[in-house]
Amino acid sequence: MNNSDLEVPPPGSERSRAAAIALGDTKPSEEPGVNYLALIGLLAFFGWLLFVAGFVYFLVACGVIFMIFLHELGHFMTAKWTGMKPTDFFLGFGPTIFSWRRGEVTYGVKAIPAGAFVRIVGMNNLDPVPPGDEDRAYMNKSYPRRMLVITAGSAMHFIQAFVILVLLSSVIGIGFLHPDYDSSGWVVDEVSVGDSEPTTGEVLGLLPGDHIVSVDGESTDQWFGLLDAVRSRPGETVEFVYTRDGETLTQTATIGETETGFGRIGVGADFSAVPERQRPGVAAGVEEFGEQMKGAVTAIPRFLSPSTFSGLISSSFAADSAAEQDTDRPVSVVGAVGVAGRTAGTDWTFPIYLLGIINCFVGVLNLLPLLPLDGGHAIIATYERLRSFGGRRHQVDVAKLLPLTYGVVAVLAVLGLTTIWLDVILLSS
To answer: Has this prediction a pTM greater than 0.90?
Structure first.
């Protein structure tokens, strides 16, 4: 990198304004006021969630909004603690519904509850700092203080996830849909009768009270183990081992197939002998948090891979069945809310568990070293620190990063819109 990297466009120039857009700092603080039209629109949206979509959907959506609020609260509080000057704290995007000023900060709510933002003086090193605020500007603070503010958003996600998962395992109790739920006491409740030909359960002669021990040598002691073993073997003739009144029986039968190509044997489960709520303890919650963090880290490369990108694009133009059959694709917030709403009747703790998973993923995703994500700001601060020697402060020309920034925004936008589209198709089908 040559000396031209040290050149920063003058404040107010076209390059400065373009870089400001990339950093999300596009306009000065807003004046307090109320936008009644936007307020009516927001109330209509929440009214639809509450009275049309359902109370569970409303609660899950509020949980996601609260998660976003805590992310920005992390940035806001650490900025104040480190001596920086935050000027705006808004929940939502788009037209401002109402705002008020308290001290030197303008607080407010905007019409689209899909995000939030905090504006800090000097966050964009290309914009002028108001006279008297030089010592409180982000760009003039030490590297550790800048990194604390930058990473505070993701830290809030990780704290939320940790608290949620530990409380579920130790206080609230995990339910039927939690992966650590012990459903080994399940037994057959009922056997479906086939329309044109008998179901696998009929062929096996299964009766209420039977317990399937294994399928093709794979343990099915847990109910979800049975589902996994059956779904992956449509049309296969395999050996079933099950118990009845203390006796172990073995039979061979062909697994049926659903319209979407998954295996099905046509039996329901009775969980009356299984505790409705289980509390494996704090250690189990901590372990679950570690597993979810590991899963989030490994999922990010798949989420941003070319194969995922092309698969989502092709699926978005396919028939409705594409959304139903592709169970391994990424899920949007809309899909997550839909899953939570549909499963709450079976296990009301699952939406809480799902919120913990979302926090892990969003926290990790936000640390990717790409603008406009927080990780992009972190890598810039780190690079500036490494290039600053002998008391001379190096500043990156953010305008030169605009092509990459716009590319990242475009990719994330396409991924977000296509997953939302596929989730809407799936939820409406």
So the answer is: no
